[in-house]
Amino acid sequence: MNAKNRISTVTVSAPATIANLVCGFDILGMALEEPRDFLQVSITDSLGIQITNQDDFDLPTDPVQNVAGVALQAMLNAYPHPAGFNLVSHKQIKPGSGLGSSAASAAGAVVAANILLDQYFSSEQLVQFAMAGEELASGVRHADNVAPCVYGGITLIRSLLPPDIIPLSVPELFVTVIHPQIEIKTSDARQILRKNVLLKDAIIQWGNIAGLVTGFLKNDHALISRSMTDIIIEPVRSILIPGFKEIKTSSIEAGALGGGIAGSGPSIFMLSADKKAAIDVQNSMKDIYHRLGIDYNVYVTTISQHGVRIENESVYPI
Amino acid sequence: MNAKNRISTVTVSAPATIANLVCGFDILGMALEEPRDFLQVSITDSLGIQITNQDDFDLPTDPVQNVAGVALQAMLNAYPHPAGFNLVSHKQIKPGSGLGSSAASAAGAVVAANILLDQYFSSEQLVQFAMAGEELASGVRHADNVAPCVYGGITLIRSLLPPDIIPLSVPELFVTVIHPQIEIKTSDARQILRKNVLLKDAIIQWGNIAGLVTGFLKNDHALISRSMTDIIIEPVRSILIPGFKEIKTSSIEAGALGGGIAGSGPSIFMLSADKKAAIDVQNSMKDIYHRLGIDYNVYVTTISQHGVRIENESVYPI
């Protein structure tokens, strides 16, 4: 881009993300290649934020009620010059799926807006702004979806206060995700968790977390598989998801390395070492939900390297 | 070695080890280059185990009361042929220091004996046998000292049941260890821990564990430093160690990356990126214990790559 030109409109796609990755409750997240939301953001001469939704999800267009609006406003509050944005949102990630729909809106919007501000903010700051949107969506300021959405791959949120986000790696794994068409609110899924855990259970959990992170960094599939065990959150939350145990067992029989609840559910994800296994897993999942009479969406995809991706830039001379 | 020869006596040295590494309670351990115990093991024609101590620690020589004896007996129980061992122990790692003295005895003995049995057992099995000795010493079957003692470097014990030991890495770090001459029993240090932890604290802890493991694997000193935080065990156990907080603060001011209680204490260890910092840390530790009037031993050393090391083999034709 010539220095005299300024990008006035950019279209990005923001991927679905899976938080927790079984044992890494609130600290691990992973970006998927598909599905993706598409967001077109323009910088405007007028102040403030305008939002238009070009989808069927009936989400609020009032910026203070909209996760992308809240994230963009947090960004504008930190920007030292007056500015405004126009956002057109084409959502494809269903809200309430457990696949980071609100994170995709929030992270997609701020990454796109940052391009229009000549990358004024760092990725870490973008995660902060997007977290303001997450807070609106779930009542909790968490980063395990927005961080992988901004950074891509698998991210570790070592700490939230102060934020410390560590991109881990992008293992060449296949991901099967099934989204049963039932509703679980993130806030409900969080409320049913106990506030205390036994120290001896916490020790088992942190052994598995350390194992999973090591497995990702060393690309050790067997270690990833052995480490994807959650004795604290999954036993409680999985009760809300019909057929969960059966799907997990049959997926592993079909060749999955392991998996569990996507975020707070109800989607279930499984990692596989190759595409054939991922498709076999998909078929075994479908069979179970057909039998249980539950509608679903299902995806076979990979881990996204880049998170939010630029799809199109419109450049005008200024 | 010629196939017709059989090693009848071997001398090994077994290193001091540091369990937990601050946030990795019960799952992480690290082998030090120094100090080391020396153990001479001979295979005997008679059954059973004879133990001689060539040091001043007055440890039991009855094999069922001796950690090395119990470990060797566990090994003999799993060996399909009749055999016996003669052990001469020259301990240099003070019992009760928090530096894995019992683990060095147990692991050193079984690694040496396994050489005499033509490496009949795997490293994982040796850890199991040595854990029987640890159980005698502390009442708990734990592997966070014996695993790094057998494997060297830094090891992750992902799981104890079934055992799953993952050698992580051997970062080129310097270690300063100070051992105040006070006594804390591992069993006491374990008893004062609360049986429950808050989920929100457990989440902070597993973020740090994941960060520490990532720091070791990526050789990221800043990340290692940020992750060496323990909000669950250290605040409770450090009360038993005089001057702990002051030593930690002054060590970090002197250039340490971080550190904390070695195992269940009372020794305190600090990691540093270079030898100068490790010596500065040592001097600041000495100053504090001089002022408090507490006797101590202090070491500046490195992380041991190999754990138990063969010092000498005696080969006789058979």
Give the N-terminus to C-terminus distance of chain A in angstroms: 12 Å
Question: How many domains would you count in the coordinates of chain A?
Answer: 2
Shape annotation of chain A: globular
**Can you give the helix content of chain A as a percent range?**
25-40%
CATH architecture of the largest domain in chain A: 2-Layer Sandwich
Radius of gyration of chain A: 19 Å
- The oligomeric state of the chains shown is homodimer
CATH class category name of the largest domain in chain A: Alpha Beta
Topology, number of strands of chain A: 12
Give unreliable regions of chain A as ranges: none
Report strand % of chain A.
Answer: 25-35%
The sequence of SSEs of chain A as H and E is EEEHEHHHEEEHEHHHHEEHEE
Examine the coordinates and then state which fold CATH places here, giving the name of the CATH topology of the largest domain in chain A.
Answer: Ribosomal Protein S5, domain 2
Pair with the most extensive interface? A-B, 38 and 38 residues
Q: Sheet with the most strands of chain A? A: 7 strands, mixed
Structural class of chain A: alpha+beta
Number of helices of chain A: 10
The residue-averaged pLDDT of chain A reads 93
Structure write-up:
Two copies of one chain form a homodimer. The first copy, chain A, is α+β, with helices and mostly antiparallel strands. Chain A has two domains: 5-169 and 305-317, Ribosomal Protein S5, domain 2 (2-Layer Sandwich); 174-302, 2-Layer Sandwich (Alpha-Beta Plaits), CATH 3.30.70. Helix content of chain A is 36%, strand content 29%. Chain A is built from ten helices and twelve strands. Chain A has helices at 67-78, 101-116, 123-138, 146-151, 186-191, 199-218, 221-227, 234-237, 244-253, 275-292, and strands at 5-19, 28-44, 48-53, 84-90, 154-159, 164-169, 174-180, 196-198, 258-261, 268-272, 296-302, 309-317. Chain A is globular. The model of chain A has no long low-confidence stretch (mean pLDDT 93). At the A-B interface, strand 5, strand 6, strand 8, helix 6 and helix 7 of A face strand 5, strand 6, strand 8, helix 6 and helix 7 of B.
